[in-house]
């Protein structure tokens, strides 16, 4: 187990710059998730930590030791890939022990470690099976077992659940979180799935176009996104964005005209000039209200009943697009109906003309 430090890491492929100076300290035993849209550079960064990709500039330290020039096999890291990368002709036990055998580990020691990993992953009955005799989820467990037996200082996961079906992904998410708790190892996990990031990470690193946009605990990022990109990336359904203009600021509140004769009061922690802004409201913070008291009015365009909740897609009219409101499972709203929506003021976010969040309270 070890800390990992990234110091101003850049990566160029010819003229294309894939990473623009990533800096981060990952603590010993942390579960860190790199998340971002396709092409943002998360796999490249992971592969650089693994030693599978050269570093254009900057420094990577594992447990305080610079590893830029250290070959992958000597870095003390184990990587689990999306496609499992198991040898088809070997049994699960042989696949798990192969790397250890290669470096001359005594047979008895290999058996002990494979047995221990199989117990942790609950795959003891599968040890004699070959990959084609196992399900996708079982194969992925074997691939994780192969990483565990090497007792790495750092585990690296590159979208390990992407090939599994939805139900199995949910189960494996919980298993990986349990694995992290039981062995307490430093884990770095790459995904484009914000739900995986929210549910497993101690801290999430949100990336966009080769830049780290924000780092923080999942709920911290969810509640205090630094900019429009982070706000829109975390959360499903996405945060609603309403274009508006700040009319005046008084007593820590900005009055924002969002068109359609509606004005929203958004708490702000600093002075802000009158002018164009974006108001962000999460679907769960839009409440359907009866007669007259709503701050926004619109027509229900789509109703999605999910059982435990109902998603209403509401056309606000004027120039504003649609908003999504998340209501209870027994929400009575009907298609085509005109409804009113109230916004809990403390839950609204304000972004300036550059898309940067305006702090909500002075701290
Ligand atoms: P995905 O989720 O699609 O895997 P990612 O965030 O992991 O995306 P990377 O694989 O890290 O993205 O790639 C980052 C950028 O670098 C992309 O624009 C990609 O096209 C580019 N890139 C990656 N590898 C190479 C390469 N060998 N040569 C040239 N460009 C590359």
Outline the structure in words.
The longest helix has 18 residues, at 166-183. The protein has a 6-stranded mixed β-sheet, with helices on both faces. The chain has a 5-stranded antiparallel β-sheet with strand order 13-12-11-14-20. The mean pLDDT is 92. Helix 2 (92-102) crosses helix 3 and helix 2 packs parallel to helix 4. It has helices spanning 42-50, 92-102, 107-121, 136-149, 166-183, 194-200, 218-223, 228-233; strands at 4-13, 16-26, 31-35, 57-62, 65-66, 77-80, 154-158, 186-191, 203-208, 211-216, 240-250, 253-257, 263-267, 275-281, 286-289, 296-305, 309-315, 322-328, 338-343, 349-351. It contains 8 helices and 20 strands. The chain has 2 domains: 4-227, P-loop containing nucleotide triphosphate hydrolases (Rossmann fold, 3-Layer(aba) Sandwich); 240-351, Beta Barrel (OB fold (Dihydrolipoamide Acetyltransferase, E2P)). It is of the alpha+beta class. Helix content is 24%, strand content 35%. The protein is elongated. Bound molecules: adenosine-5'-triphosphate.
């Amino acid at each position: 187990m070890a800390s990992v430090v990234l110091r101003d890491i850049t990566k160029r492929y010819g003229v294309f710059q894939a990473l623009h100076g990533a800096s981060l300290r990952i603590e010993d035993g942390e579960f860190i998730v790199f998340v971002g849209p396709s092409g943002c550079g998360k796999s490249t960064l992971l592969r650089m930590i693994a030693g599978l990709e050269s570093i254009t500039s900057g420094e990577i330290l594992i447990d305080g030791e610079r590893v830029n020039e250290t070959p992958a096999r000597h870095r003390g890291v184990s990587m689990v890939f999306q496609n499992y990368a198991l040898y088809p002709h070997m049994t699960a036990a042989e696949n798990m022990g192969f790397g250890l055998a290669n470096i001359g580990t005594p047979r008895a020691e290999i058996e002990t470690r494979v047995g221990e990993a199989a117990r942790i992953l609950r795959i003891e009955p599968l040890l004699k099976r070959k990959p084609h005799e196992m399900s996708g989820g079982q194969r992925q467990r074997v691939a994780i077992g192969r990483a565990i037996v090497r007792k790495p200082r750092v585990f690296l996961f590159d979208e390990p659940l992407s090939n599994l079906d939805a139900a199995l992904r949910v189960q494996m998410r919980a298993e990986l979180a349990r694995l992290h708790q039981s062995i307490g190892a430093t884990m770095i996990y790459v995904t484009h799935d914000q739900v995986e990031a929210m549910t497993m990470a101690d801290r999430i690193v949100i990336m966009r176009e080769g830049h780290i946009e924000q780092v923080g605990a999942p709920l911290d990022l969810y509640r205090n996104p630094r900019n429009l990109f982070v706000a829109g990336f975390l959360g499903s359904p996405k945060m609603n964005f309403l274009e508006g203009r700040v009319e005046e600021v008084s007593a820590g509140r900005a009055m924002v005209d969002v068109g359609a004769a509606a004005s929203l009061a958004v708490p702000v922690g600093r002075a802000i000039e009158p002018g164009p802004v974006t108001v962000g409201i999460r679907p769960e913070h839009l409440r359907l209200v009866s007669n007259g008291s709503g701050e926004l009015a619109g027509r229900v365009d789509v109703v999605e009943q999910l059982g435990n909740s109902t998603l209403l897609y509401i056309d606000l009219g004027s120039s504003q697009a649609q908003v999504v409101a998340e209501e209870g499972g027994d929400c009575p709203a009907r298609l085509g109906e005109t409804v009113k929506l109230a916004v809990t003021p403390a839950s609204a976010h304000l972004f300036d003309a550059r898309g940067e969040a305006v702090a909500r309270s002075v701290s």
